[in-house]
Write a structure and sequence with these properties.
The chain has four helices and no strands. With 75 residues, the protein is mainly α.
Length: 75
């Protein structure tokens, strides 16, 4: 499972701290394992992509296994 620390790493590597830290529902829904977590992930990723699409690279799961995560970010 993707963790809070993984989001902090993405925050540091991409420089999009305002989007990640400013999206309180993302980390809250991750912590509580809420049903809306996947929607919050897509919201944050689309915000990052809208500012700099080159920041996002989707890697095959075989290159970066993260449990049940279907979206893998490589920076």
């Amino acid at each position: 499972m993707f963790t809070h620390e993984d989001w902090e790493e993405i925050d540091l590597l991409t420089g999009f701290s305002g989007l990640i830290k400013g999206h309180e529902q993302l980390l809250r829904s991750l912590f509580w394992e809420d049903e809306d977590y996947s929607g919050n992930v897509l919201n944050v990723l689309s915000g990052i992509a809208s500012q700099n699409e080159a920041t996002l690279n989707v890697c095959p799961r075989s290159h970066a296994q993260r449990g049940n995560e279907s979206i893998i970010m490589c920076v």
